[in-house]
Amino acid sequence: MREFNIKIISTQGTFMEDKIEEIKLKDLDGKFSILSNHEARVVFIVPCRGEVVRKSSRETLFLSFGILNVDENGDVLITCEACEWKKDIDINRSKKSKERALNRIDKNKDGIDIQRAEKALMRALARIESVS
What we know:
Elements: E1 4-10, E2 13-20, E3 22-27, E4 30-35, E5 41-45, E6 48-53, E7 58-63, E8 66-70, E9 76-80, E10 83-85, H1 91-107, H2 114-131
Helix pairs in contact: 1-2
């Protein structure tokens, strides 16, 4: 397979900058892949388990809400809230985040931002899936 340039930037700075063969992510319509020479496009990414494919390896990562941009040269830029390699995900923290979010949604009291709790739940579930 042919390679393309990718750069992923999170709120913490540059997460990765490399040449890869494929990236697998998720948008509002479901899972998708980007390969070399992909047409130019912009995609809204939802929290998901992703996969980076290189010539000699595959790595799993977590990506939070973000924007993926494929430019006219086929290079990819992803900007996202958070991004972590599978090996760096704290599964216990993710499970606690899931429980907190479920409790907030379940209680549904005045003053609780349900949309915020639902987004937190999406991120926690995607992190948990990324380590499975």
